[in-house]
Give the backbone structure.
Amino acid sequence: MAVRIFRNSFGGGEISNTMYARVDDAKNQTGLAKCKNFIVEPQGPVFRRPGFEYVAHTKYANRKCRLIPFLFSLDQTMVLEVGHQYIRFHTNKQTLMNGNAPYELATPYNEADLFELDFVQSIDVITIVHMNYPPRTLKRYGATDWRLESIAFNTVLSPPSGLTVEQTIGPDVEDNNKNLFKRRYGVTSLNADASEESVLSATVEIDCNPFADGAYNTIRWSASPGASIYRVYRNVGGVYSYIGQTAETSIIDDAISPDSSITPPRYDAEIVSGNPGTVTYFDQRKVFAGTRNKPQNIWMTATGSENSMAYHLPLQSTDRISARVYARDVNRIRHLVPLSRLVLLTASGCWVVGTTDTDALTPESISFKNQSAEGASAVNPVAVNSACVYAAARGGHLRELGYSYERGGFISGDLCLRAPHLFDHKEVVDLAYSKAPNPIIWSVSSDGVLVAFTYIPEQQIGAFSTIETRGAFESVTVVSEGYEDIPYVVTRRTVNGREIRFIERMHEVQTVSKSESCYVDCAGFYNGAPTRVVSGLNWLEGETVSILADGYVVPDQRVVDGKITLEYEASQVYVGLQYDSDMVTLPIHLQLNDMSYGTSHRKNVTEVTIRLNESSGVAAGSSFDKLYQMPPRATESPGYPPNLRSGIYDLQIKPKWSDEGQVYIRQSLPLPLRITSITTKVEIS
């Protein structure tokens, strides 16, 4: 019996062999047994992933480094290479230079701590924290003027000094020493925009008769450096209350009624005594958490302030917030994730910051509610729309955390249930998220594989594929460049017998022509006058490389003295390391009369029909050892490169009886491939 099986979508991505028998699962109908070096599109097709272009060597070939994004705006982005006690900067395939050397900034961060650094950016400032180092800010003052500065949680303004007070009283008062009252004053300094205020100065006291005719007190002080405004407070019932503000160095108190709702600030030194391990922004505050001595404490700056830990007595709604999560265990707060609520992730669970009796987050309204018992690893989570994805503390899987209206809270779900083989017995090392042209979570595994997860939670789309290269991936980040979000990676490769680490950049998915598309790794690109010699390939010295010249696939060559020599001149040439894109369909299941779904029947795939889109160079067969190559040329004139092909194409493959009836597809040439459907003709025993 012969049947035809039509697969119109691969939106299930790669799934584990433990799921092969789950014919009742929807993903089984659209999944793949193998999806290597392909990317799954949300609409269902798969396409060959672009190659990675060479950007630079890392500073140390024998040390790991980590990539961190700098996102000022959509058209101003950089990738920070954070290594052992240094930072370098890359953007748009180039390295920021200082003369003939890469521009570099010295840091205190050691190699062992790099992947536990937490960071958050606001405009030109990145705040970096780690439990082993005091918190710092990385600030961009100019293209080649970056500074790593310590954070001052207390004010840098000094209060005024030399306070004096004297009373002036009318001449008609008969006894100036009767009805005396004590008056105690203090003064604070403010900057020009009144956004920062010093602590209260040393106070001064006077015995006076403030209610006598013509009586008033004159308070004077010495100017304070950096101060533009001064506020004067008077002690009322033990609380210093506001009576006036001036740009001068004196003020007259003629029985002014104090305002006890405005008091001088105090500064919390609690956070200064420890180094927070995580940081973010939420509700107009910068938030710190997780010091070594107080692992479950959280500190929020005063409203609208970057670093001020000021508070007042009595407390004001805009004061800094200091609170502790009271839990049954003592696992440190590892991550702060700003969603609709502020989410706290520890190694054992998830908490949400809420409020009591009000919608405003204040020192007196803050509360914590436990949401999940599934904790997070040290890898920084990524926010995807209204949810976040994080690496589980145990098991190595990726988990989704999002709000559920049905349950009235946040719930955590395992995203890897159908593809546990990609994560079991491994660890997630790094995470990044790209939005365009396809929403993909990039996950670096401890085995050196980059896992791509096409993810649209609101459409219930989630599909895994693996990205492999000659070597290993060690870090990934994503920045916007042009119309796409571009992944940058750190790779470890063996080149000419030596282990070397590179910064590489994935080529754009959308290209103008085939000659400008890149499907080789660690690639170099020549674009200029026609030439036969392509030089400047020193980073590939001694390696055999694949070549695409003006859209032609030319024979592989070995790089010698940093160059290759073409047989014919070409003006656009990509040179790099070859990689295979492999795809294997799931075992065939059929509804037969014996109710076996075909599992007890042998199958023989005799014909494969593939619908392609802008593709070239595909090979298919009953195994990777028996592949049939589709002819690359159709009706093109001699002397012109083969056109990309779209449409339906039949491939007569070598038949082979097997239990599974799977189809094996490979693209080895540096050419694009996009498959939208596969139809197989199968004989059933």
Residues 171 and 214 are 8 Å apart (CA to CA). Helices lie at 26-30.
